[in-house]
Amino acid sequence: MRILTTTIAIAVGLLVLLxxxxxxxxxxxxxxxxxxxxxxxxxxxxxIFNLVMVHADKVRRNAKDSVYSAILILGLLVTFTFGLIxxxxxxxxxxxxxxxxxxxxxAALLGVLTVTLLYAAIRLLxxxxxxxxxxxxxxxxxxxxxxxxxxxxxIPILGTxxxxxxxxxxxxxxxxxxxxxxxxxALTTGLRALFGVDRPYGGA
Amino acid sequence: MSExxxxxxxxxxxxxxxxxKRRFPASLREIPAFQRLSRALGLSIEDGKRLHIxxxxxxxxxxxxxxxxxxxxxxxxxxxxxxxxDMPSVASAGNPTLGLLTQDTIQSGYKxxxxxxxxVHTMGRITGLTPFSYAAGAxxxxxxxxxxxxxxxxxxxxxxxxxxxxxxxxxIPVVGAxxxxxxxxxxxxxTQEPLIGEELFAAGAYLNSDPIHAASLTVQDIxxxxxxxxxxxxxxxxxxxxx
Lengths: 204, 243
Hints:
The complex is a heterodimer. By secondary structure, chain A is mostly helical. Helix content of chain A is 84%, strand content 0%. Among the domains of chain A are: 89-127; 129-192, no CATH class. The longest helix of chain A has 39 residues, at 23-61. The termini of chain A are close together. Chain B is an alpha/beta fold. A six-stranded parallel sheet of chain B has the order 3-2-1-4-5-6, sandwiched between helices. In chain B, helix 1 (2-23) packs across helix 9, helix 5 (131-144) packs parallel to helix 6 and helix 6 runs parallel beside helix 7. The longest helix of chain B is centred in the last third of the chain and has 30 residues, at 211-240. Chain B is globular. Chains A and B meet through helix 1, helix 2, helix 4 and helix 6 of A and helix 1, helix 3, helix 4, strand 3 and helix 5 of B.
């Protein structure tokens, strides 16, 4: 079974990869990617089922904070039922579920995140008082002060000269360096999967 | 066709260096985050607590698939090592395909360890389909399921800050790595030992004695030096007016 799944994964991986370089293979690439999209839809169903199972189990065991699990299942059932009856594009669905609950909750989480990040930055020096932490805080302070809008305009030199120099030369260069490193890591990880060394499939 | 050449070169180098590493095993430089991770693996069995491995919301069908695959490779090692624990590790994912593979990978780890019957499908969970809903679900696990260490490896954006903040308040150590720049900066400020850039992809080499993982690091280093040389040569050529 393991050999079969590995052979299928390597063959599919190679065909999809070759489709990017040779037009003859792009036909197979498109078919395989269509299948992958279908499987992804099925995976979403399985994922939702898994989510319900986990939280239903918590409610049944009366585990700690299981009230949140009950709210999650209830919310899921209500959204699913009304979504089936009214269809997702219905004005009531948009007004109550999307604009009334989902977007405000995500916006609230974003607001909490802003405070959390500020708090994390303040605590950074207590957590790690090394050179990199000091450079990080110092750079963040320069960018903030350089970006702030005062009644009289930008802070001279800091806003017009230092901030652009830091963000467009140093920060951009560093970001590109990190992204090149990430791309190289992804390349070798992908090759290991193509060689069949890393096999995140075929557990059964 | 230059991409195809790079791919071939990388594949040949990876194969050749793997053979070389089989004969002459390499020693890796110390990365504190991986030392903490190894310690956490041992301690989770001893102190009767579980590990929570957050794999982020990486999608296998786009550029973020690399970090998802690296996270799954790490998850398999962790599942193998912690399968004998009374409190089995729990993994969470924010993408349905990644979630399915998470379950399959944990099962595979249990099978390798010879305890497949101990596997329960709820060890791998999909906690949400958007970054923030995923973070909210992952926070719920870290808070309520007796977690000793939170390992965050994969694709995380700024929402990683919510998970690390909760871990901080619950006194849970975090080992974090993301392929996203915003996620990396958040993890840098909020974890004890952050992993920067391509260090995310080195996890396999540090937890696995398989020579191909060490060879992957060498291939990355070779390509990195080649890119540096090309950049310097390009800058010099531009400076001299050749190009």
